[in-house]
Amino acid sequence: MPIKFSRKPGIVAYLTAGDPDLETTLAIALAAIDNGADVIELGVPFSDPLADGPVIQRASERAVARGVRLADVLEIARQLRAARPACGLVIFSYLNPVLRMGMKQFCVAARQAGADGVLLTDMIVEEADEYLAEMKTNGLAPVFLAAPTSPNARLEAIAAASKGFVYAISRVGITGTQQKVAGDASELVARLRKFTEPLGIPIAVGFGISNAEHVRAVGEFADAAVVGSALVALIEKTSPQDAPVVVGQFIAGLRA
Q1: Which residues are the active-site residues?
Q2: Distance of alpha carbon 37 from its chain centroid, rounded?
Q3: Which of 6, 46, 183, 218 fits 94 for a cystine, CB–CB 3.0-4.6 Å?
Q4: Which residues is 35 bridged to in the sheet?
Q5: For the chain, how far is it from start to end, CA to CA, in angstroms?
Q6: Reported CATH class of domain 10-255
Q7: Alpha carbon of 236 to those of 22, 163, 216: distances in Å?
Q8: Residue 174 has pLDDT above 90, yes or no
């Protein structure tokens, strides 16, 4: 089922699970939801996060050094689902940790943890048959990335395979903040709409969304904005005890 955004634009908040620690990640996620985030993306720490910029790379390195693993992230998901039953919840990972657990075992565990969907950043739609079959069996919504460089035929395939939402990358490159939303984003969303609209699949725009102005701009042409590096950077420079309040205020500011 598509992940519903009750407001436009919706806000998808990405967190690197286990940074600064697992308990604080849960508290931050709860604060984000309570202050206006529609969906939490729980990022699985990975030792070689090639698609991410330096901010998320550092967070991932810190969490990996603390021994945070996929099973820990799924446990946070379980606790988050129990505490906030109505929130949108996506497990965000590179493919390697999932393959180490086993695709079938992962999808079963993600369902049992209460996840709505999964985004595997280096899973391409052309090679996703086993993944899509296991996701369907377990009632999970796949989320795929769409880039400005993708031809229309590929966008059509991505729209058909994505059941939660399509994550439209606002620009080519790695994650990280930027001064304004790239013009490529609106053009990409317009092309995607031809394929997602008949299916009722929403589109979220990410990579570089870091302030209320960006969120407003995205709301003019997409269903939701994904906020990642800006949140992770805020957590990095804030003490663990203050991080939930600070993140909550930040999300509330995006909503305002």
Answers
A1: 41, 52
A2: 12
A3: 46
A4: none
A5: 29
A6: alpha beta
A7: 14, 32, 25
A8: no
